[in-house]
Amino acid sequence: MRSALLVLLIALLLELVVTDEDYYKILGVAKDADDRTIRKAFKKLAMQKHPDKNKDNPNAHAEFVKINKAYEVLKDEDLRKRYDQYGEKGLEEGFQGGNNYQSWQFYNENFGELLRISPLTELCFLFFLSTFYSFLCFLSLTRWRKFARAMEGVVRIGAVNCAEDIVLCQSQNVNAYPSLVLYPSGEFYNGVRDSELLQEFVMQRVTSEVIHLTSDNIEALTTSWQPYDSRPWIIDFCDRSDSCLSSINRRKLATMLDGLVNVGSIDCTSRGGKDLCDVLKVTSGVRYYPTQNVNVEQEKVIAGDEWLTTFSGEDSVEWPTAVWFVNNKETLKERKDYKRLPQLLPDIFYADCSQFMEVCRDLLDITKLPQFVVFKTTGGHEIDYVNKPSYHDVTAFIKESIASPLHVLSVEEYDSALRSGELWIIDYFTPWCPPCLRLVSEYRQLHAVIDQNDQVLSKIKLGLMDCVKYRSICEKAGVQSYPTSALHTQDGRVHKFVGYHSVQSVLENINNALNPAVDELTPADFERLVQNRESDITWVVDFFAPWCGPCQQLAPELHRAARSLRQYSEHVHIGSIDCQAYGAFCREQSVFSYPTIRLFPATTKQRWLKQYYDYPQNMWRNSDTIERWVFGMLPSLVTSLGNDFWHGVLDSDEPWLVDFFAPWCGPCIQFAPVFEQVAKALEGKVKLGKVDCDQWPGVCRGAQVRLLIQAYPSIRFYKGQHDGRQQSVWGLQLQTRDKDEIVRLISEQVEMLSGHDEL
């Protein structure tokens, strides 16, 4: 009994000793060691510590077991992750984690990418988790990793930590964790969280196609049928040896190359397929063929042992070409996942900068090597300044760059662009500036969203000017912050946009420059149009300086407000005056800071108190706020009501539409200009009034506004009293705030009332 107890105690003590050991120290490697280093260290120790070589050491077997266990854990990605987070306790079956597991650790270490939810236009699968439910989320992690590895390059994989942004998750209708959502459709995955089933779920929703080629359709597909005839081909040849790609892998490949390359397959055992295989002299493997050249002479073998070949350094290329600039050839061994890149673009090479450092120094910052560059058929090139090493990021850069005319400008190209008289956008940036790199990505997508039938925008050219490499050029261009974009128009004018902009915002800025909604005024224009304006005209004038950052930020907002106000009324005009060009005039107008926004009102009686009104300093300078401020200063068709609501509306025999609102209510503020538009549309048919429930709480309580809808604004229609009896305070409640819908509903009510009166 004592002997058994002693054995048990020794076993427990041995377990404690092993538990306290550090697996990394056992193998003599650092905690960030890669698989190769760990394998090498284990092999060395195994040779030294093997029991057969240490027969005189009674602990040799135990030591060897310890080394072997450390290696088995650290070589496995999932086991190593659990060991790093929990120690040996995390390796036990049924382990559920502990209270020391931190939110930052789960989120930052377990998931490598956080994506913005809106706008997502490409296929993306998001894992919504909460670190408050870390155990449940952790259980799904291993399967999620396996799925992510299998679908890399096919669909973007990301994670959102709802513990840090609950509002975002609620906006996506995520109320349970973990939740898996496929975008851009926003479809929830409700099946078993198995890697194979997840892949099947995604692949059922991709739109790419694999084309089955035969001797009957090859000619038409490659030379005349659109859009196939304008793309190169990757063809998978299949024979009885089963050496071809699986069906799902073909579809993955087609998804990765969607829009760039046609993916086809040929069954060399079928009658039509065998004839084609004989013509092409291939029966198995994957081949690449250029556009409209599917023939023996043009074929390139894909996925061979030499997956990258050396770049010869030609100045121009016949096809888009990606080059990976590396310090030396040994770098190729570090990124085995890049072996799949030739499937994306067969014209892909490496450039060994140790062989021609002078060329690399001229083209790149060699401290950032390795780095990808895409050479374009136009002779220009684009550098991957973001330089993230993951396969997905590299493929995304190559695919986007090939499809975009955006390229890096040299001094000569920059001077040529300025002299060309063509429509150019030049982006002045620095590679160390994150907003700059985000903007470069937006510019890369610009041509994809431009209407190619637009004779002006379809010809726009895009260039990048590196302000680290060419600092003097950027200083001469007046660039004071990064990024700064300059739109050069055909008439020789330059329009600058400062800061990051989405691709839609870029399009808006271009439209503002080419089709301005804000009039550029001279002092003579100001006197003629503003000071001597007609009595029903309102002017809003922006006094600005081109070098002023807040002025540059205001410009697109003012254009947006101008377009909206123009739709509301032809009697509202927006203008701007350049106080750098007309400094003396601006000083005469008592303008001493920029931007200064002034409203010169229509000369109605209520506006005779002041000649102009300055934009309040405590208000945001965005389009919505500017619009609301201007609307509040315009002559109104809506009557302000108080206690006269009882007699003026309820006792009236005319129809009224009344807006009960509160000045602090956001939706009320947004609805106010809409109500003015409704008043204009219904002028002569219905009277419109508004009641400020903060100023007249008794009226709103009497009308039981709060009891009815619990919120503002409340819009009610009162048909008009009949037979001398006062109308009910309830009226007809409108459940919409859409202008056209309100006008339609009220017009129908008025017609019904008119028909009833005729009877």
Annotation field: number of helices: 29
Tell me the helix content: 25-40%
Question: Strand content of the residues, in percent?
Answer: 15-25%
Helix and strand composition category: alpha/beta
Q: What is the CATH first-level class name of the largest domain?
A: Alpha Beta
Tell me the distance between the termini: 111 Å
Please give the CATH architecture of the largest domain. Answer: 3-Layer(aba) Sandwich
Rg value = 35 Å
Instruction: Compute the average pLDDT.
Output: 81
CATH homologous superfamily title of the largest domain: Glutaredoxin
Low-confidence stretches: 1-20, 93-119
**Total domain modules:** 7
Number of strands: 29
Features:
DnaJ_domain_CS, oxidoreductase activity, acting on a sulfur group of donors, disulfide as acceptor, protein-disulfide reductase activity, Thioredoxin_domain, five-stranded mixed beta sheet, single chain, alpha/beta, disordered N terminus, Glutaredoxin, globular, Helix Hairpins, 759 residues
